[in-house]
Amino acid sequence: MPKKSAASQSWLSLINIDKVYSSDKQRQAFSLFTMIAIAIIVITMLVVSNYDVYSPILTMSLIAVNITIIMGTVYFIKTAKLEVVALISMGIVFIMCVALTYTGGKENTALYWLMFYPVVCFASLGVSRGALLGASLLVCCTFILYGPDFGQVEYGGVEKSRFLASFTLVFIFSFIGEYFRYKSHMAIADITLSQTQDAYTDQLTGGANRRFITAHFLKLAAKTPENYLPFSVLLLDLDYFKRLNDTYGHDFGDTVLIEFTKLLDSQFPMSCVKARYGGEEFVVILPKETAQAATKIADDFRQCVAKQAILTNDNKRVFITCSIGVAQVNNIDDYSQALKQADENLYKAKELGRNKVVSKYS
């Protein structure tokens, strides 16, 4: 596969693998809201059944947690900002865990409730933030359990050491699992992106191919029409290409196609989409350009091509020309009809003697 030029990178940047990333977001959302649902139920039951046993600090902390995560869920429904909701939810649960450790809960059983935190934290926030919050909770609990007396409940020595050992192990293995899951996910994403780019790349010229236009660009333009519509379609065809192949050989014909692709990259803005549509035929899409403006742009390019000489193997200078048909797309659904119109205009350019640009404004 040919090396991609810097100019050709612009169309590659339009390729995305949102489906791969969205599946990971769904996993994060499912983990977070499963935790939220369980937390709301458990916390409500604990407060209702033990409000006369719990200290006021713990009771208020539990109620605050419930209110916060419910508000976070509502905020997510309205905004779909998963990372913000996850960070707020896990932050308020962090505070609840600290309050549990400080007060001891019912009959000093608070420490048992903390074991879930690293697992959900990594699943909801990822490696970096999960590690930060998990490690912070471990430090806070260690300080409460082994630090100076500032009103916290007293735990047994064996109970404290076993809790810290167990929590540390859960934290470490949760970190290992999430870290390598993330690495695997990113590796799969890179492979998927590379395969998708290869599928949309013309193997000879290194530029975009027809599939990129029909399978990707049109969907992208339909999704964000404000960035592209109206756009103009230029259908370009190299004149007398068969004669060039017959006269100078197919290797020279390949060279012509490669050099013509380089001209497209250098003469049209990076915002334009350039693709080899098949054989010696190319398509250029000019976002936010009317057919009238595109006709002038196409004619400037036609003149530029006519001035370029390509050297054969024996250093003979060969000049090439191209014919261009132009049409305008106002709605994505009209693309096929506009391409047909551009093809008809290209045919007229050939009939007029080639090396012409034809549109309704020419």
UniProtKB/TrEMBL annotation:
Q: Where on the tree of life does the source sit, at the highest rank? A: Bacteria
Q: Which reaction does it catalyse?
A: 2 GTP = 3',3'-c-di-GMP + 2 diphosphate
Instruction: List residues of the GGDEF domain.
Output: 229-362
Spell out the GO cellular component terms annotated for this protein, sorted alphabetically and separated by semicolons.
plasma membrane
- Which EC main class describes this enzyme? transferase
What cofactors does this protein use?
Mg(2+)
- Mark the transmembrane ranges: 29-51, 57-77, 84-104, 110-127, 132-151, 163-180
The name on file for this protein is: diguanylate cyclase
Q: Name one GO biological process term.
A: negative regulation of bacterial-type flagellum-dependent cell motility
